[in-house]
Amino acid sequence: MKTGLVNGCFDLLHEGHKLMLAEALANCDHLTIALNSDASVMRLKGPTRPIQNWGNRFWSIHRWHGDLARLKPRWELLTPIAVIPFEGDDQKLLLQIRPQILFKGYDHGALPIFYRRIGWKHLPVGEPVFEGPEIHQCGRVEGVSTTKLLEQMHESA
């Protein structure tokens, strides 16, 4: 069974997020989605974010996953997901989940070496060696981002 991990804010779930999640679902047998906590989104994106709280972002992902399940033929199973809170400590998350594949967005081009290294850097004594996940860089929907959506909303207001 191939396990995958994707993490992010997923504030205002948009087509770019959906493409990333769909790519991840298509390339593993079980997907863990580490959804940034409200506090970590604020640290990453600034004091006006997140737009939606963790619970609303959680349910947006689950609703989208449920919609996908309804679109598939009955005999096809949809990759199961687990949505967990994430405080922003990538090293701790990778060592806790130990995915075989780490799915990253298009905007994380410089990170793969970092993610491969943290898999084995600080293992407790006696822990089995975790050499880090395979990195899968997901595609991009050109011109779509939460920041751009917010800019468009402010311009039209």
Report on this model:
The chain is of the alpha/beta class and 157 residues long. Helix 4 (90-97) packs across helix 5 (112-121). The model is unreliable at 110-116 and 118-123 (pLDDT under 50). The longest helix has 18 residues, at 54-71. The protein has one domain (3-156): HUPs (Rossmann fold, 3-Layer(aba) Sandwich). It contains 6 helices and 5 strands, in the order E-H-E-H-H-E-H-E-H-E-H.
Key structural traits:
single chain; 157 residues; alpha/beta; Rossmann fold; 5-stranded parallel beta sheet; 17% strand
**Strand neighbour order, sheet with most strands:** 3-2-1-4-5
**Annotated CATH topology:** Rossmann fold
Helix percent band: 40-55%
Write the H/E string, N to C: EHEHHEHEHEH
Average the pLDDT over all residues and give the rounded result: 82
What CATH architecture would you give?
3-Layer(aba) Sandwich
Low-confidence stretches: 110-116, 118-123
Number of helices: 6
Largest sheet: 5 strands, parallel
Quick recap:
This protein is of the alpha/beta class and 157 residues long. It has helices at residues 15-26, 38-45, 54-71, 90-97, 112-121, 146-156, and strands spanning 3-8, 30-36, 81-86, 101-104, 134-137. Helix 4 crosses helix 5 (112-121).
Layout of secondary structure:
Layout: E1 3-8, H1 15-26, E2 30-36, H2 38-45, H3 54-71, E3 81-86, H4 90-97, E4 101-104, H5 112-121, E5 134-137, H6 146-156
Parallel strand pairs: 1-2, 1-4, 2-3, 4-5
Helix pairs in contact: 4-5
